[in-house]
Amino acid sequence: MSQYAIAQLNQMSQQEFTIALGAIWEDTPEIAQQTWHNQPFADIEALYKAMVAIVKSMSETEQLALIKAHPDLGSKAKMAEASVQEQAGVGLDRLSESEYQRFQSLNQAYKEKFGFPFIIAVKNHTKESILEAFTIRLKNNQEQEKQQALTEISKIARLRLQTIINN
Q1: Which residue numbers are catalytic?
Q2: Which of 75, 91, 95, 128 could share a disulfide with 99, CB 3.0–4.6 Å?
Q3: Which residues contact 53 (CB under 8 A, 6 or more apart)?
């Protein structure tokens, strides 16, 4: 993944900006595309806040599409390169058969209850704390969990921005 300075991003065309930052929000480059209109950005925090504001202004349908764009944890399904690296960082690519079955079972229970995948910023966790979060969050209601998913997606986006912005 390329690295950019805020000054470089501020000079980009909308297309270049979208290409550079489109993967920050899993398979939803429209967020970067819309954020471009808020240039110039003073720093990474200003850029991040502008992106979060776009997500908050999205319709319910668009927010659910963003949530559903995320892969299941511990899945062997095709996912964005950033997700592959993030999950590998906590060992979710090296699950034992029993761990894999447990993740699959929890993913299924979660999706059946909420209609979208369980999302957590894995860089801040271990396999054990992720499994614990699954158990706790399965007790939430639909709206609590939608808001929690969007919060986690925003945490993931911040971490991804920090890896590609070099100031």
Answers
A1: 70
A2: 95
A3: none
